[in-house]
From TrEMBL:
Keywords, alphabetical: Glycosidase, Hydrolase
GO biological process: carbohydrate metabolic process
Descriptive protein name: Exo-1,4-beta-D-glucosaminidase
EC number: 3.2.1.165
Gene3D superfamilies recorded: Galactose-binding domain-like (2.60.120.260), Glycosidases (3.20.20.80), Immunoglobulins (2.60.40.10)
Beta-mannosidase-like galactose-binding domain ranges (all copies): 71-202
Native source organism of the sequence: Tunturiibacter gelidiferens
GO molecular function: exo-1,4-beta-D-glucosaminidase activity
Pfam family, one: Ig_GlcNase
Family affiliation: Belongs to the glycosyl hydrolase 2 family.
InterPro entries given in the database record: Beta-gal/glucu_dom_sf (IPR036156), Beta-mannosidase-like_N2 (IPR054593), EBDG/EBM (IPR043534), Galactose-bd-like_sf (IPR008979), GH (IPR017853), Ig-like_fold (IPR013783), Ig-like_GH2 (IPR006102), Ig_GlcNase (IPR041351)
Coiled-coil stretches noted in the UniProt entry, renumbered to this chain: none
UniProt enzyme class: hydrolase
Domain annotation Glycoside hydrolase family 2 immunoglobulin-like beta-sandwich: ranges: 243-354
Length: 903
């Protein structure tokens, strides 16, 4: 009734109480889906009860398969969305396909290891060269007669023939394109009151199709993700339908005290005669309405602009902000088409009152502004599951981890995520950059035909209409590794303009200019493989902290020992072998040689799996911290950085901030450290200490403190300095004298603290720094990385004297509180905490407030871990009581302590 009261209030102000009462009758008198005289749009997901089979086995006829008498004994049972291989895996036909090289045992996976399967033909013996049928029977109430029925497909890969009740609805010349959505009017074929049967024969993409590919990130499944990978829905409406409503915002000035909303939607007349009615509704509680005339079969975009609807100029708006810099409230837009007092169709979305713009700085770098405020993009590249399985609970967990690291942006390269993904991004203020993928037919423009361009533009139209209303979206990239040629870019820009894309548009993720849009203002110079931490500040030509780097990384990310046990057979976990390589990347990333060479030279060769993993986690911590810190210190000379990548499509040893099992390792905590909102950090290039404030509120009265020690903990330098950190600022606080760091003297420790006006520590940081930094061989830079001429040498860290850690832990709900102290006289180096179950196995998704820390002699620290609620709920009280916390460092004996519940 709140909606009713608000609507009547606004309508009475305009003298339209009668309209309010008519609308109220329509809203509350309309019965639900399947009942008599329903006047509102209804939808019924066609999710469960599907059967799936290969046409090679049944040689099916769509006209017969789409009738109730068709026999499906021996078919796979399925829930849609699901690719063909996902159906087979769910049925148990193929087991543990992500373990070791088991994926290669599936028929059709004989393509050369490490190559991009998207660019290759299906092997001759592949079972996926045939079409695969999806069949679903469903019923519709007889009382639904007289309505208009639609079947909507959210994603089909790649081609399909669609049949309903013996009638062909569409064929594979009409249905082609992995990123297209389809909505078919099936009114004439549907049979209310009887059983209906839908049969869809799907076909895998060829090398000259615009499919979904996995580039060099991971192997491609042998079915190339063919099938119904998006949801299928039955929709009812009246004869005029409303589609793709959107609301955009413009702020007249930077005070944000006023906002101008523009509302749009498409309306379509499905009849063979002209019709008229009204498009009406509310946007953020504001009532809007206008008459609409439609010719037979006509589709129009209807606009409500503030120039014509003054009520769309609003004061004191609830402004949507990105994560960590403000709230992200969402408003509701509801539009309905009314004919003769009856609602023909209605659509509702949520939107945010916010405005995104971008510009080139004086140095030609792409700078984003949200609500007229500049913002440093700190994000990472996203991937879906390799079988495109939709897992809402996992998705929510991943968003939680992204926020915990204080990243503010996710980049989608050709992975057009689910509606649930965008809902979470909107609600949680996570910005999203989306666009097409590289490295297959999407960028083989010299091989395109006119039909290819038609599919590409239709795909773009589908996705833009789907995502354009989401406040989380800030940019669309028309290319990734290369910009499209002029004719293709122009065609894309036309689609974007016709569909009122309200955000930034980039020609590609690279610095290559185009004749159509000029400079992109971004770069994609790598690195993607290991570079020493100093790289990000000393580089001035490639991937260092200048400009906007759309994808880059310090390279491999070795999973935890527990995760390695899950992804590798026992006889392949150590020493490293070709199976490890299979779980690296493809093409130029099929091994970990650059990373391993750097480890051996810098820290000494690891003789055991445990030591290798320990050093690898510290290298990932150090590398990710250095990258994000460099971009933070140099803002807004640096305007954005996208870590490549955030996650993996399957268990992998490269390019993630948390592994496939959602286990957070060194790279995760290094990123979390670097991106904390008020942060003190060290600079490798000039030995300065900076304070970085990443929020839009000043933080005055701070004190930065630095201590520099040699390997034996002899203090070489100390200083404190008062700092006022302005909003969204990077302020130099202290210069450490250059002469302290002697090239021949091995390793130094730099300890930093940042205290607030009450002397409480709000940020702390600890670095191990070589006397002589890595010397890079810039002339040998390639797309993977810049190799080292000479590595930095910190092998002396292996000679640290033994330290002892004392610890206690207690449990409170889903939190574990750990008290640590170092009673010894030696530094406790890279101390990592993990929670173990009653069998001694590490519990994944346990997120600590801090990890991979150092404790000076006599120092005490408190760490807290958050355990997923479902993990706690699924364990018995006895099991929870047996959970333990393991504490281990480079030079400490592992300590395992019970976690006692608070009484």
């Amino acid at each position: 009734m709140i909606l009713y009261k608000q609507s009547v209030k606004y309508l009475s102000l305009r003298g339209s109480l009668l309209l309010a009462l008519l609308w109220l009758v329509n809203m509350y008198a309309a019965p639900a889906f399947g009942a008599a005289d329903s006047s509102l749009t209804s939808s019924m997901p066609l999710k469960s009860g599907w059967t799936v089979q290969s046409d090679c086995k049944i040689h099916g006829d769509g006209a017969k398969l789409s009738t109730p008498s068709a026999q499906t004994e021996g078919w796979y049972s399925a829930t849609v969305p699901a690719t063909v291989l996902a159906v087979q895996v769910a049925a148990g036909e193929f087991k543990d396909i992500f373990v070791g090289t088991n994926l290669r045992s599936i028929p059709g996976t004989s393509y050369p290891q490490g190559e991009n399967f998207s660019n290759l033909d299906m092997p001759a013996d592949s079972p996926y060269r045939c079409g695969w049928w999806y069949r679903k029977a469903f019923s519709v109430s007889a009382m639904e007669r007289g309505k208009t029925f639609w079947i909507r497909f959210g994603g089909i890969k790649y081609r399909a023939d669609v049949w309903l009740n013996g009638q062909k609805i569409a064929d594979s010349t009409q249905v082609q394109g992995a990123y297209r959505t389809y909505e078919f009017n099936v009114t004439k074929a549907l049979r209310p009151g009887k059983e209906n049967v839908l049969a869809v024969e799907t076909f895998a993409p060829t090398p000259t199709d615009l499919g979904i590919n996995w580039v060099d990130w991971n192997p491609c499944p042998p079915d190339k993700d063919m099938g119904l990978w998006g949801p299928v829905t039955l929709i009812t409406s009246g004869p005029v339908v409303v589609r793709s409503p959107m609301a955009t915002t413009h702020f007249p000035d930077e005070s944000l005290k006023a906002a101008e909303l523009t509302v749009r939607a498409e309306v379509s007349n499905t009849t063979d005669h002209p019709t008229k009615g009204r498009l009406e509704g509310t946007a953020a509680g504001i009532v809007i309405s206008q008459p609409v005339m439609l010719d037979a079969g006509e589709t129009k975009t209807i606009t409500f602009a503030p120039e014509n609807f003054s009520q769309l100029r609003i004061t004191s708006p609830r402004v949507w902000w990105p994560a960590d810099v403000g709230a992200h409230p969402l408003e509701t837009l509801t539009l309905r088409f009314v004919q003769d007092g009856s609602v023909s169709d209605e659509q509702s979305i949520r939107f945010g009152i916010r405005e995104v713009t971008s510009e080139l700085t004086a140095k030609g770098y792409r700078l984003f502004r949200v609500n007229q405020h500049p913002i440093l993009i700190r994000g990472a590249g996203w991937t879906q599951d390799m079988l495109l399985r939709q897992q809402p609970e996992r998705l929510a967990d991943e968003f939680h981890m992204v926020h915990d690291m204080h990243l503010n942006t996710i980049r989608l390269e050709g992975k057009m995520e689910t509606d649930e993904f965008f809902r979470l991004a909107d609600e949680q203020g996570m910005m999203v950059m989306a666009g097409w993928c590289c490295c297959d037919h999407w960028e083989h423009w010299n091989k395109w035909t006119p039909e290819t361009l038609d599919v590409a533009t239709a795909s773009l139209r589908s996705q833009i209409r789907r995502i354009r209303s989401h406040p989380s979206l800030i940019a669309w990239l028309n290319g990734s590794d290369n910009p499209p040629p002029a004719d293709v870019e122009s065609a894309y820009l036309k689609v974007l303009a016709e569909n009122y894309w309200p955000n930034a548009i980039l020609s590609s993720a690279t610095a290559t200019p185009t004749t159509v849009t000029g400079q992109s203002g971004v770069k994609m110079t790598g690195p993607y493989d290991f570079v020493a931490p100093s790289y990000w500040l000393v580089d001035s030509h490639y991937g260092g902290a200048h400009g906007f780097n759309t994808e880059t990384s310090p390279g491999p990310a070795i999973p935890s020992l527990e995760s390695l046990k899950k992804m590798l057979p026992a006889d392949h976990q150590w020493p490293r072998d070709a199976v490890w390589g299979y779980h690296a990347g493809g093409e130029g990333f099929q091994n970990l040689n650059a990373f391993n060479d750097a480890m051996n030279a810098t820290y000494g060769e690891a003789q055991t799996q445990e030591r290798y993993n320990q050093v690898a986690q510290s290298m990932a911590f150090d590398g990710e911290r250095a990258m994000f810190e460099a971009y933070g210190r140099n803002k807004y000379t640096s305007t954005g950085v996208i870590q490549w990548m955030l996650n993996n499509a399957w268990p992998s040893s490269i390019w993630h901030l948390y592994d496939y099992y959602l286990d957070a390792g060194g790279g995760y905590y290094g990123t979390k450290k670097a991106c904390e909102l008020l942060h003190v950090q060290y600079s490798y290039d000039d030995h300065s200490v900076y304070v970085v404030n990443s929020v839009f509120v000043a933080s005055p009265g701070l004190t930065a403190v630095v201590h520099v020690y040699d390997l034996g903990l002899r203090e070489l330098f100390t200083k404190s300095s008062s700092v006022d950190a302005g909003p969204d600022s990077a302020v130099k606080a202290i210069d450490i004298p250059q002469e302290i760091f002697q090239p021949e003297s091995g390793t130094y420790f730099v300890q930093l603290e940042l205290k607030n006006a009450k002397s409480a520590i709000v940020s702390r940081n600890f670095y191990w720094v070589p006397g002589k930094l890595t010397e890079f061989d810039w002339a040998k830079t390639d797309y993977t990385h810049t190799p080292a001429k000479t590595f930095e040498d910190m092998t002396t860290l292996g000679t640290l004297p033994a330290a002892h850690i004392a610890a206690t832990a207690h449990t409170s709900g889903n939190l574990i509180h750990v008290s640590l102290s170092n009673p010894s006289k030696a530094l406790a180096f890279q101390i990592a905490a993990e929670l173990e179950d009653q069998h001694g196995a590490k519990l994944p998704q346990t997120i600590w407030t801090d990890n991979y820390i150092e404790l000076m002699p006599g120092e005490e620290r408190e760490l807290t871990a958050s355990i997923p609620s479902d993990t706690v709920a699924s364990a018995s009280p006895k099991e929870v009581a047996e959970w333990k916390v393991k504490i281990e460092g480079w030079n400490t004996t592992a300590v395992t302590i019970p976690s006692r519940p608070i009484k």
